[in-house]
Amino acid sequence: MANLKDIRDRIKSVKSIQKVTKAMKMVAAAKMRRAQERMEESRPYSNSLAEVIQHLLPDIDRDALPLLDVRDVKRKAYVVVSADRGLAGAFNTNLLKVAQKEIDSFGKEKVDLFCIGKKGRDHFKRREYNIITSHVDFWADMKFNSAITIGRSIIEHFTSGKVDEIHVVYNYFINVGQQQVKSEVLLPLVYEEKNGVTHDRLYEPSKEELVSSLIPRHLNVQMWKYLLESYASEQAARMLSMENATTNAQDMIKDLTLEFNKARQAAITTEMLEIVSGAEALA
Fold it and tell me: Looking at the 3D structure of the chain, how many domains does it have?
């Protein structure tokens, strides 16, 4: 059994860690609320813009715009949106597992990577994947211009013909306790035929002009959506992870306190027996 000083030091260490995890939980909760508000504000705009473009695409000559060019997929690019830091449970692990599985199934030598976040960059760099560029340390002051800057190099990689398809792997925010890893095709834009009521709409100017104008905006909005969804999911995962860590620390403190009391009681009993034994020996 450990002596009283060792147990007391362990209790003190666990209490210090508990204060840190509790503070991190509060910070993550505040960041998550702000990120969630921005994310929920962007979703209606992103969905409406995507709906309009989906309605226009069937009537457009795809050869007129490079972003609509559907080719035989011989090479792909993957955009992996991870976090810069850990301590968020399985947030990064689940994401990187899905991304690596898809990349390996297609062939890592035929995939170019755009890593957003240190965790993704370090993971694939250690495994010698072909990383074209990475973006880190921008989450704290993330703005819409960040999405435009990141998206520009990704879009140019497609329009220049270096890859035939671009996928994005990110965490989709469902609620505070649940985030879902999603893999979506960013480029080329394809028309998904949906069953249901079709709306007869009149467009001014022409559909071709609208598509040419809307698609670049749509791609910027999509990149912004990926960043917001991932950031909100990261903070939610970190908040939940730190809450669990705080609870576990409290349970550990209770166990250590019980062990401390048992050790102290055993020490007192031993001293009393020694005193009685000494008194009887003198008698």
Answer: 2
